[in-house]
Amino acid sequence: MDLQPRSASRHRSPAPRPALLAVPFALITLVTTADVLAPPDVHLGPLLVAAPAVTASFAGPRVTAAIGAVAVLAQVFVAAVRSSVTDLNHTSQIIALILISVFVTLFAHLREVHERELVQLRWVAEAAQKVVLRPLRERLGPLRLASVYLAAEADAQIGGDLYAAARTAHGTRLIIGDVRGKGLEAVGDAALVLGAFRAAAHQESDLPSLVTYLERAVAPDLANSPTPDDETGGEAFITAALLDVPDHEQALHLVSCGHPPPLLLRGNRVVSLDIDHPAPPLGLADLTDGQLTSQGFPFEPGDIVLLYTDGVLEARDEAGRFYPLAQRAAAWRGVGPNDLLRHLREDLLAHTATRTLGDDAAMVAIERLPPPSSQP
Question: How far apart, in whole angstroms, are the C-alpha atoms of residue 375 and residue 249?
């Protein structure tokens, strides 16, 4: 089950609230009254320009133009009451107010166009993310799964966090990873990894062979991918953890390609599944000549394995402290992977100062179910 936040609407922004519209009308009423009652040598009419200017900050061009027109009519009324509309001073004020109203109306139009573009970009980004990250099935063999993806609050930026699961003849294979960087380049690299994983997960006999296949599939593309540090010699790469969970063996096999270690939750204990000989991130295999190996860990019925990306660990509170994932997971007292991820998602957002993350974060929880014969 995917615990995803609802997407923002791709349609136009909502109309301004009546309470906001009351502000420019109140300004017009206040300035008009004060100007009519002011001494002959005091002219407050120029202050009417504040009404359309304030309106342009929260409303569209039509509402802004309407408020501007009301302000001009108020200025004409003041001129007629105090002297004459054709008076040079009042005529200048009326002309200036008309010009400024037109200017701020144009500004409101440009702002509305820009907002629509941002909404459309965000919608496209979210749609692309959903295509790349297909929802995980809640049940795969003897496993129950849940996942959550938390996007960082950045305009039209989607990250390269990725996860997927595939059934094989003997069990279930999973991958979680994190592409260096953000934006469409990162999404493209994530899609490349996921496509290669889905194509080879059923074919390769073991995890080291699968990792070798992924490396060969993505390395040429990563070599040509721009990175934020191109000018300083930075390289593109993808950290990943791959798991093989046999159906009829109470264990899991793990290969870590520079990725944070999974956590095993068993009762009230949390154990970090650290690999003795980790592999380099995908795209950097040429930096080592070591032989790829997988490492086995016990995975018994009732156990939950938590996979995550570094966006979870790097979330900071107001004091700059990182999120203590293992500690918070150990304090959880719920049941099942869905409940675990709901708890961690809310706790992670509450940990941050603004309930937003500095980087995208993904989590996948996998629970091994008891054999059918032992289930109540």
Answer: 17
- Residues 348 and 352: their CA atoms lie apart, in Å, by 7
- Measure the CA–CA gap between 115 and 360, rounded to whole angstroms: 23
Residue 36, Cβ neighbours under 10 Å: how many? 13
Q: How far apart are CA 256 and CA 198, in angstroms?
A: 18
**Geometric angle at alpha carbon 185, from 183 and 187, rounded to 5°:** 70
Instruction: Kindly report, residue by residue over 118-159, the tens digit of the pLDDT.
Output: 888 777 767 766 777 788 999 999 999 999 988 775 544 456
Of 10, 2, 12, 226, the closest CA to residue 126 belongs to 10
pTM: 0.69
Q: What kind and span of H or E run contains 159?
A: strand 159-167
Q: How far apart are CA 15 and CA 20, in angstroms?
A: 10
Written as one letter, the residue type at 46 is P
- Listed as ranges, residues in the chain with pLDDT below 70 are 1-17, 125, 128-129, 153-159, 182-184, 223-235, 287-290, 373-376
For residue 280, give Cα distances in angstroms to 63, 239, 358, 359.
Answer: 58, 8, 25, 22
Q: Which residues pair with residue 146 across a beta bridge?
A: 365
C-alpha–C-alpha distance, residues 185 and 178, integer Å: 13
Among 340, 283, 351, smallest CA distance to 307 is for 340
Which stretches within the chain are classed as H helix? Answer: 18-37, 50-56, 61-82, 88-132, 183-200, 207-223, 310-313, 325-330, 336-351
What is the C-alpha separation between 83 and 79, in angstroms, rounded? 6
Residue 107 near residue 65, CB atoms below 8 Å: no
d(CA 113, CA 109): 6
118 and 110 Cβ atoms separated by less than 8 Å: no
* DSSP secondary structure, 6-55, as one string: PPPPSSPPPPPPHHHHHHHHHHHHHHHHHHHHS-TT---GGGGGHHHHHH
- Residue whose structure tokens are 């017009």: 28
Answer yes or no: are the C-beta atoms of 305 and 143 closer than 8 Å.
no
CA 108 to chain centre: 28
